Every structure is written in structure tokens, then in C-alpha cells.
Amino acid sequence: MFRKDLRAITLSVLLFVLYPCAIALAQDLPISLDEAILIGLRDSRGILLKGEELKKAKAKIAESHADLFPALTLTGGWTYTKGYYSKDLSQTNSQINLKQYFYTGGRIFNTIKYNGYNFEVAKALLDKEKIETALSIKEAFYTLLLTQDFTELNKSLLDNGREHLNYTQEKQKFGEVSDSEVLRFKSSLSDLEEIYDSSVNQIISAKESLINLLYLDKEVNIIAVGNIAYEEAEVALDQGLLKALEERPEIKQYAAQINADRSAVEIAKSGGRPSIYASWDYYSRSHAVTTTVNTKNWSDYSVLGATFSWPVFDGWKTKAKVEQAVFDLKKTQLLREKAIKDIILELKEAYLGLKDAILKIKSAQSELKLYADNLRVVNEKCGKGELSLLDKSDAGIKYSVSEFNKNQAAYDYVVAKARFDKATGGF
User: How far apart are CA 347 and CA 341, in angstroms?
Assistant: First the structure.
């Protein structure tokens, strides 16, 4: 655990030091998956906004606790009356009020609970934002990696196509091939050039997507570094579902929201219940007449009392508030049921995608072995002079295509695995 923490700290320091330099120099910015996720989770505006909402929810808890303590109010004033009395008069008033609630019909207690549950809701929403951001970054990063490999493959195909065209044109000079054969290779080469240009545009699009997710400067030329590595792992749908129902932020969110809505119902009901509070008031007043010798008359006194208040009839205002709170509770319960169904569907789709990706990987691995062996045989024959360099290039192209197919299957797997992990509540 210590080594992982040390690695994360070192990575953060390197990003802090090197990233501004990369922007300043407008150079390439090689980035790994771990670095991309670290930057995304650090700079995502969605995560930062959810973090501020969490701080606000925490402050609301502190605000609701304030009603448990007595309230002390100090009021003071000075007035000067001129021309109204026979003598001009100045007067000073001050008052101290101390008030403490002992019973509010459950309003204070339930308000504290309500804000506490809302804090849990805000925390669940923050966790959800982090998981979804991490998943989006993973998908964008792996997409960029795959498009980079695809572009390299298309460049190899384009070079191979040019070799074939040159070879055919040389044979044409000796009358060994027809003009139509040359035109066919030229047409194929034109198609390969179009495919290559399209793959270059795909890289640009993938980079823009990842840069946008990481909130990087648009001038940075980001380059995904690494391989689409994977480790096959057996996953069980039933276990995944149980884990999802326990750890998905949406489940925690709606559980907390339901409790908050129940507290809101009690808060609404407190509007029709009695309240009891005690108060102590201290008054002080003095006045001075503007004569040669000022005279002051002080009047100090205090009042101590207890108040019992019960709103017997408020025009059914409290009743309407209670009904609204109950409707909100029912709405949240329905949303929770819908969220559970959506999670189950999402989990099943991710599970099927994972299984399908595993089958594709096995098929691609078998194909890769076949073309690897074919390349080995061609290299041996080429070394003996039995085959030409063009035959060797063709064999290499076939191997590269099969290798890309394996990488594409691996891409499907890692993306499906990431979606399955997200569906179960992890990232």
C-alpha cells in the first residue's frame, strides 16, 4: 500500500512539474492510462462541482445544529429629538434577548437528520461522477491507442500497396501484365490512401475527445502510451449483481434520499405541532436633556418567561406541505425502483459484452498463431532465396492485420471489463 501511495505522489509531482512545460513548448505530451485518469479525476469540472456541493451539504448540517443552542441578540439605538419637546432630547436604548427552544414538534431534530441524509446523497453523486469520469477516460484512452495502431497498420498496407504497384509497373514494361492489371492496383492504392487518411482523422478525433475529458490545452499534441493489456478474469453475473446493489452510488443515493424525504415529511408535520421556548430579555434606556447641566434617568429591567405556542388552524397550510413531502417520498421510491432495473440491464449488457469479447480474443489468438507461423516460414524461404522481399512484405502485412485484430478484440475486452466494473460500483 505504501509503495502504491508513493507512486501516486511521485506521479502527481511529475505531472505538476512537466505538464506546464509541455504546454509552454507546445510539444508532444506522451501520457499513460494511469496519468490520464489522475489528471481527469483532478481537473474534471463535474467532479469539482460535485465536490463543492458536498462542502455545501456539510455546511447545511452545521447550520441545522445551530438551532440546538440558545440564540443571543443584542439591540442598541440612539435617537435625538429636536424641536418637538420644549427641550431637545437625546435617548439611548439597548436590549439583550436570550432565547432557547425546548420543543419544536420535531422540526430541529428532523432537520438535522434531513441535512445529514442530503450529505450522503451529495457524497454518492460525487462517487458516481468519479466512476463515470474514470470510465469515459478509459474508453477514450483505449480508443486513441487502437486508432494509433490502426493508422500504423494502414500505413503499412499503403506502403505494401505501393510496392505491389511498382512491381506490377515493372512487369508491365516487359509485357508480363496488362494495363488493366496496373489500373486495378492503382485503384486499390487509391482506396488504401483514402483509408489511411480516414484513420488519421480518427486519431485527431480521438485526441480531441481525450483532451476534452482531461481539460488539457487544445494546443497539446497528446499521445497515448502503452498497450491494450488485459487479464482474463472469470466473472459471475449473480455476484456482480449483489455487489452492484450494495456498492453502486445510485443505490446509496436513493437510500439516503428516501430517508431525507421521510425526514422532510416529519418537518412538514411539525408545522402543526406545539412549540415551547424560554426567553430572557434585558432592557436599558436613558435620556439626556440639552441643558447646561445634563441630567440622565436610567431605566433598567429584565423579563424572564416561557412561551407555549400551538397553531390550531393555519388554513390547511401544514396539511398541504405534508402532502407535498409525501409525494416527493413516493417519487424517490419510484426512481429507486427504476434505477435498480437500469442497473440490472446495464450489468447484463456489460456481462454479455465481456463474454463476447473473450470469444473474439480466443479466435484472434488462433489466427495470430497461424500468421506468425506463416511469417516464420516465409522468412526462412526468403533467406534461402526461394521467395522475394515482396512475398516477405505480404506475409508481414498478414501478420500485422491479425495482430491488429487481436488488439481490437483486446480493446473490446478491456472496455467491456471497465463497463462491467463500473456497473458493479467500482472503477
Answer: 10
Say what the pLDDT of residue 308 is.
Answer: 94
Give CA–CA dist 37/19, Å, rounded: 14
Report the first-to-last Cα separation within the chain, whole angstroms. Answer: 18
CATH for 14-43+106-272+316-423 (3.40.50.2300, 3.40.50.300, 1.20.1600.10, 2.60.15.10):
1.20.1600.10
* Better pLDDT: 298 or 392: 392
DSSP percent split of the chain into helix, strand, coil, nearest 5: 70, 15, 15
pLDDT tens track for 358-377 = 889 889 989 989 988 988 88
Q: For residue 44, report the phi and psi dihedrals to the nearest 5 degrees.
A: -60, 125
Torsion of CA 286, 288, 293, 295, to 10 degrees: -30
Rounded to whole angstroms, the Cα distance separating 249 from 130 reads 10
Residue 232 neighbours by CB under 8 Å, 6+ apart = 358, 361, 413
What are the E-state strand segments in 336-421? none
The Cα 405–Cα 407 span in angstroms is: 5
pLDDT grade, residue 22 (50/70/90)? very low
Residues in Cβ contact with 193 at an 8 Å cutoff, skipping those fewer than 6 apart: 158
The 10s digit of each residue's pLDDT in 259-279 is: 999 999 999 999 999 999 999
C-beta of residue 144 within 8 angstroms of C-beta of residue 210: yes
Contact criterion met (CB below 8 Å) for 414 and 354: no
Neighbours of 10 (CB within 10 A): 10
In the numeric block, which cell numbers belong to residue 174?
A: 516487359
Helical (H) or strand (E) element with 271: none
